[in-house]
Amino acid sequence: xxxxxPSLRRLARQLTSMQKDIRDLQTVPQLAHSSLDDHGMPVxxxxxxxxxxxxxxxxxxxxxxxxxxxxxPQPAGVEAEGDAGVIRASWQGVFWAGxxxxxxxxxxxxxxxxxxxxxxxDPQGGSVSVPALGGVRTVSFRTLSQAGIVSAAMGHxxxxxxxxVSEQMQELHENLDELNDVTLPELRxxxxxxxxxxxxxxxxxxxxxxxxxxxxxGSGNFTTYSINEPSDVGTGEGDQWFxxxxxxxxxxxxxxxxxxxxxxxxxAIIAGIDLSKLVSNGNLSEIVANxxxxxxxxxxxxxxxxxxxGSITTEKIAAEGIVADxxxxxxxxxxxxxxxxxxxGLFKTSDDLPGQVEIADDAHFYPTQGVAGPGIRIVxxxxxxxxxxxxxxxxxxxxxxxxGMNTSGESAYVFARPNSAYLRTLRADGxxxxxxxxxxxxxVLRTVRAxxxxxxxxxxxxxxxxxxxxxxxxxxxxxxQASPASAFLRNRRTxxxxxxxxxAGGEDSEVGVFKPNGSNYASLLRASSDxxxxxxxAGGATRYLSVDANGIWVKTSAGGGGWREYNLEETAxxxxxxxxxxxxxxxxxxxxxxxxxxxxxxxxGSVRADWAVGAWTSIATLPAALRPSxxxxxxxxxxxxxxxxxxxxxxxxxxxxxxxxxxGGGWAVxxxxxxxxxx
Length: 679
Prior knowledge:
Blueprint: H1 6-27, E1 40-44, E2 50-56, E3 62-63, E4 75-83, E5 86-95, E6 105-112, E7 115-120, E8 126-131, E9 135-145, E10 154-161, H2 166-208, E11 211-215, E12 222-226, E13 240-245, E14 248-255, E15 260-262, H3 267-270, H4 282-297, E16 326-328, E17 341-343, E18 346-348, E19 356-366, E20 371-379, E21 386-388, E22 391-395, E23 398-406, E24 411-417, E25 420-426, E26 432-438, E27 442-448, E28 454-461, E29 465-470, E30 476-482, E31 487-492, E32 498-504, E33 508-514, E34 521-528, E35 531-536, E36 543-548, E37 551-556, E38 564-567, H5 568-571, E39 578-579, E40 587-597, E41 600-609, E42 615-621, E43 632-636, E44 644-648, E45 653-658, E46 667-670, E47 675-677
Parallel strand pairs: 12-13, 16-17
Antiparallel strand pairs: 1-2, 2-3, 4-5, 5-8, 6-7, 6-9, 9-10, 11-12, 13-14, 14-15, 18-19, 19-20, 20-22, 21-23, 22-23, 23-24, 24-25, 25-26, 26-27, 27-28, 28-29, 29-30, 30-31, 31-32, 32-33, 33-34, 34-35, 35-36, 36-37, 37-38, 39-40, 40-41, 41-46, 41-47, 42-45, 43-44, 44-45
């Protein structure tokens, strides 16, 4: 109700004047006429730290360069692509989670393997080319402020940088790998096999040089030295033929003009023979036998008493009772043999054992040469399907262990020398089907096709392991490489480009599919301790699904117009309606409730109160998770009355402002007219 009291009217005029003065103070500059003459003015933050100097700088220049500030937002919309000797990096001019461009923006830095290589200084975005060495490189991006403060790096895109002369260098690398992994080991094996084969042929050749014919010095007669008895006709009466084996003369013949006649020794010569050095052979044995009979038996030196039944037994022959430097020819059977040597003939285990072991001049079969030589023959218990038995024998500068040969012609053997060894399997035609080679630093396993090309190869060294498979045309189809720092699995197309790759490093791992150029990913899955994301450029647009400490993000360039990013933790959530209570003095007309849908808070319901005039009345206090980052206001229209205001502030207070020109009284207000984003 209006009053005519003069004092009240005077007080009203004073209040109106004060309100006008306050409005004037809010709009009039407080420093209307001021200047800084040849000086700089420092500006400090709330903690007393220098943030910027306005005016003259310490170096004599003028400006307002910041020296401190907040951490800038991470860049978004970044891409990197590897090329020959260079990385092309680009930025679309946007920031992560839709953040605004900082006023102190300086550049977006491009890092290669964690080192800054270049910067994009245009705030609208751009691209740079960064020189880089060949190989797989990790490209990341970060924002740099004018104060020198950087954001956390993001992106971490894996690109493959080819050498500058990419095709030639790629071919050279492949050829060098093929040379080191396949050709040289095969060549070493082949040379070793050839040396073994050549030695065998030399041995056979020496064995076949049987006869040595010596001219009689102009007398017209020839003397022949041979390991065999006479076979050819003589050239003239008086020719001599000596059979010599291991340096010992086993027989002598003379050509009488029509036939070779054995030369016999006379009794006078035999009388002086040392019997301990006699070797039984041909007619000589008969002569010696006659001599022994005449001198021993006829002279009664060995009588019937000396040869009694059972009087000469193995017990009667002491270990030192039979002494000889050489026992030659035939076979040797017994439990013990000491002293001297046993030349020629055969050593073997008992016949009644399951399988046998034999030692002889021709006991070992050499699969690569198809011939027999000195060594140990192993006769298996099951002898079916064997064309040649297994054995052990000398070979070149080492030893060979053969698995024998079956009736189909297949074989396998192991060759070992002091510093290396290899195992081979051979087909029926003698070609290598598989090979294992080992030396102190590396082991190689290889399978070989019938045409001689390598189908697969495994190589293990002191600090790495590699596996490679090849197609029938010789092109590499897949590789596995492992070292203490990382492991790779790659598949390759027929043109040599990488089609897919799995990489595991010390701190991250990834699996990806490459575009036809073999250098850029078409799709990629990558995980590290900071982030996991899925990427694809299928259909021409680039899309990411990323999970990091800040949320679950969808990033896409589809539709043009740069990058768009969405946080699924905000856009995909819906809390449903949740009731909340009102403050004291407020009456519920319709139940009040809140709902968080896609990060936007919605309200419902209506309340009634005797609202204060020209002041704020609290309706409710909402939970902290719903509070905005700044005060939000909206109108609350009421029929027939001046406009009221609804407000939600950063403290979570929902309240109503009733204008001073509205008469008192109570009425209902809808709270659904206000909404706001969280955070």
